[in-house]
Amino acid sequence: MSPQAITRAEALTLAAQIAAGELSAREVTEAHLARIAEVDPLVGAFLHVDADGARAQADAVDAQRAAGEPLGPLAGVPLALKDVLVQRGIPTTCGSRILEGWRPPYDATVVTRLRAAGVVILGKANCDEFAMGSSTENSAYHPTRNPWALDRVPGGSSGGSAAAVAAHLAPLAIGTDTGGSIRQPAALTGIVGAKPTYGGVSRYGLVAFASSLDQAGPMARTVADTAALHEVIAGHDPRDATSIPQQWPGLRAAAEAGAAEGLTGMRIGVIAEHDGPGWDAQVRAVTADAIDRLQHLGAEVVTVSVPHVVHALAAYYLIAPSEASSNLARFDGMRYGLRVGGDDDSVAAVMSATRAAGFGPEVKRRIMLGTFALSTGYYEAYYRSAQQVRRLIADDFAAAFTHCDALVGPTSPLPAFPLGERIDDPLAMYLADLATLPASLAGLPAMSVPIGLTPAGAAPALPVGLQIIAAATADATMYRVAGALAADQQQQWGGLLLDRAPSLSGGRP
After folding, report:
1. What are phi and psi of 312, to 5 degrees?
2. pLDDT number for residue 495
3. Interatomic CA distance for residues 424 and 414, integer angstroms
4. Model pTM?
5. Which of 179, 299, 376, 394 has the most CB atoms within 10 Å of its CB?
6. Is residue 346 annotated as a catalytic residue, yes or no?
7. Of these residues, 157, 161, 325, 440, which one is catalytic?
8. What are the φ/ψ torsions at residue 232 (nearest 5 degrees)?
9. Would 435 be classed as within a structural domain?
């Protein structure tokens, strides 16, 4: 199998070939390291590539297979890890100067589970600083570019993870999602990305942005690969007080059932509020075609109102910055990471100078927003009111799920936008997460699946994603819908977005 064929293969296919001895994990790893060396200077998906560590992990898988020991379902498959999850001895910056050079002394639970499954971690993927952004332009090190059009953003904050998968630098990636940071970049780069039910994947070792919202989740080029990775990282963790005490088997089986059986007997709700003049017309047209396909697959499609989602943007940008202002107080120049100032300077002077130099503009903006929202005299008017709206949104979703099995709508109100277009307009940037914020506030599982391309014209044809939202802990339902849609799409288009990769040397496929 040629290196190009290896990097274009699905994760589960590679795992099966490694288990059968048709490929070695070392071969697969070397092919992806070579692809990174060739392509990543153009894309900027990685902040740190751990080539020696990846080779050692691959060799361990090969030794395990040679000894006749059983392998996990994704053993030997390479993965890009978002740089907000700690990995022992590997630089972890969260895309920020304030953690430059820090090497964690422990692994996140997600990393522990990836290691136990034999997944090969290639390195740390770029992201918006402390996961705050929708374009991966807020990284302190360099922006990441969209493999479909290098002058456009890949979305954020997990843009490095998304671009690595879309550019075939890795068949799998881990992102994190606070308000849409897995789903929105997945939509903009034409891959699959899932935010699990809040508490479904451990947050131990995930550097916190907003603790009541943050969730790590899987990203891949197919629904089946995404489900398989989700099963690897999910499950109860006693070290995370918010972890749900249950296991999460059956996600891949649900995707396969959807692909084999369709959606007969299911009712799918279209969120009425996720439409209107602020939503790109091309995105709306591609989404309408996908909803028609859901009906073709046997689902009953109904329009559902989730009325308070129109207030999700305002509520989120009070709650998330408030939690960030508390969580980021630990970065003070005293214990680890960047330190600015001399030994004779006061503690206050060192803290002030370190934070001024170490935090970027967007992080500072959100810290100030959060500090204001929590301050005396404003807490009741802003933070508490936002939490009350959050409760109303959760109640709206609960009511909606009494009438349907899943909800769908566009993942992003617009396709990938040009680099630099929104970076100086915070409100315009925040609006990029308009569709994804409600499910985050309610703690629901939600994922984005690629459904087509915008028509080529003055602008390049760009991917569009459909968001699928399920009730809390009903992650399997989400995967069933996604599996059916993906199978139908592959049948109709020959896997336009699932099997064909952007060619970075010659434009789009």
Report:
1. -65, -40
2. 32
3. 18
4. 0.95
5. 179
6. no
7. 157
8. -65, -45
9. yes
CATH code, domain carrying 76: 3.90.1300.10
Strands 267-271 and 406-410: parallel
Please indicate whether residue 124 is annotated as part of the active site. Answer: no
* Percentage of the chain modeled with pLDDT above 70: 96
Residue 285 lies in a domain: yes
For the chain, how many structural domains are there in total? 1
Instruction: Check the CA dihedral 364-440-496-282 and report its sign.
Output: negative
DSSP H/E element including 251: helix 251-261
Residues 152/502, Cβ–Cβ less than 8 Å: no
- Rounded mean pLDDT, 359-373: 96
Q: What does DSSP say about strands 172-177 and 78-82: parallel, antiparallel, or unpaired?
A: parallel
- The whole-number average pLDDT for the span 58-87 is 97
pLDDT of residue 494: 33
Q: Given the residues 24, 82, 412, 440, select the one marked as catalytic.
A: 82
In a domain, 357, yes or no: no
Active-site entry in 24, 134, 181, 412? 181
d(CA 41, CA 305): 45
pLDDT in tens, 429-461: 999 999 999 999 999 999 999 999 998 776 789
161 is catalytic: no
Residue numbers of the domain that contains 140: 3-309+391-493
The answer to whether position 334 is within a domain reads no
Whether residue 158 has a cis bond before it, omega within 30° of 0: no
Mean pLDDT for 302-324 is 97
